[in-house]
Model the fold of this input.
Amino acid sequence: MAVLGISGLFGTESDDYDPSTFFAFYHDAAACLVDGGETLAAIEEERLNRDKHTNRFPLLSSRACIDLSQLQVSDITHIAYFFEEEYTDRDVARIAIDDPLMPLTPSRTLLHDRLGEAFDEDVSDRPTIFVSHHHTHAASAFYDSGMAESLIVISDGNAERDGTSIFFGDKSGLRLLRTYDRSDSLGHFYTTITKMIGYRNFDEYKVMGLASFGNPRIYREMLERTYCLSSDGGYRLQNENLVANLFEAGFSPRRSSEKLTKQHQDLAAAAQEVLERIALHIIRYWLRETGSQNLCMAGGVAQNTTLNGKLLKLSELRQIYIPPSAHDAGAALGAAILVDQANGGNPANRSYSRTSYLGPDLGSEEKIADRLEEWSDFITYERPEDLNNVVATALNGGSIIGWAQGRGEFGPRALGNRSILADPRPADNRDRVNLMIKQREDYRPFAPVVTAEAAERYFELSGVSADHSHMSFVVPVRPEFRDQLGAITHVDGTARVQVVKREQNQNLWSLLHAFESIAGVPILLNTSFNNNAEPIVQTIDDVISTFVTTGLDLVVVGPYIVRRPNADRKALTSAKVELMPFVRIAKEIDNTGVRSEIFRTAAPNRRFFVSESLAALLNDCDQNATIPALLVDELWDLWDRRLIRVTPKKS
Done:
């Protein structure tokens, strides 16, 4: 039985359902395919349509799941969606109230129509199940945990009615124990703080990193007025009063152009303290009530790795599991698993996903070489006899390297197949990656990846048993190594560690050993292979685009090392240039006259003014036309912002 799981809304580039309005709710679109109790493929749509956190329907990833699995569309027996049907219908109708021209089509019909577009085949005859949102998260965690029984805590912005849900899982399945109303959502609380500090939706992790620099006492009393705890494991969180209380305390919303100050650090620290206090209160209570010593978590709050690190110290716990895709893309997988379980799936199966590398691959060595050759106006490449030794030597010499291998990761973190790697020892490497390559705030910490054999030597992992292969926990760096590991040790002496076993990722594990033989430590700085304007790279074209437009020293793609012989932008004149699918050329009329602009139709909606010559070029249907040299710098800036796609004409 093959079950296709879906998350995301129903808009496409050509037929949109107002992506800006829905952006905060039906985000992280994905498609997942489960067959015979095994996850065959799981792909976030953003990796293919290149729009971060996209909520547009996963047309591309649905097709890619079929291609990767080598199944036929006719093999799909069931379809699973990550929210309840009535709730989804009402949300679509709520938006339609504001626009009487918008078609009001049932979500079931929309789902079938979109899959029909994806497959060029009608699938409306397949049983289609709309699943409660928090149930999908619970399934994604429990049925990949390996545990026979467990308490399951799901907390995010909101599900249909709830902000937090408590389940118990065992051989009989999932049993809902209690829900906490969405008005008390921990996710919404943290998002409000995130916006007050001058960040956007999905930037909560920036606040978590900032919290280590602050003093929680400064805003503790003010925030304590917004919540209370009860002896039955309950709590109330007055999110509706949060902004007003912050204004009364003299806190003004930061604009993104303004510097971060001690005030912002202190608020981040106090908010993190509130999140931890409430979450630990709930978890401890339900561990006592159920008598379980096992815990599974999912939902957006489960991506707060600082909170997760605190859970490792709980005396009530023996084992904890957090899936690599705890966010809403993982809900697509959970929906598919639940439908599989309800239709004869093995109830004892606790390992649907035997790996996190579930996305599309790079292709054969020959395919990689052919595509690199087509990029030869921009890069050179070679295949060394001892790849790991060459790369390890370059890393030890200070190079920062893009590393792309095999199938892409499913989840928000690069786990060694689409990664940027660097020497973890010099603190300067952290600053260089932050400012020159990732183009992000200089305070942000980076994760270390370490071999399983050496992990306990460098990091404090004892206590609660946990799967550290997904970067889900912040743990202390052992004090004697903190100065030595300056690039990956945060200001509070911690790190968000990834432990890799040989059987999980042979390529990465071997590189770590090669680096150890040269540098003396089996650890590398590991961060996602992207810049601040794009999702993690997926294809060879994505890899080369990020390499060429950032400060990376070299890139490894499969067995090949890729270099830039020069930084001459004139290579753009011989390339093919086209608009990304989520932007449009538009005209704006103001008191200065008529100006051309590139407008992002996906959130965040932004305008970028361009010259009339460039607008004409991008509107030209002849993508093989020669690009004038005078437009190269302007085009390069759009490429760096990922508003245009550049590919070699040789293809």
Summary: The chain has a mean pLDDT of 94. The longest helix spans residues 262-290. The chain has 21 helices and 28 strands. The radius of gyration is 24 Å.
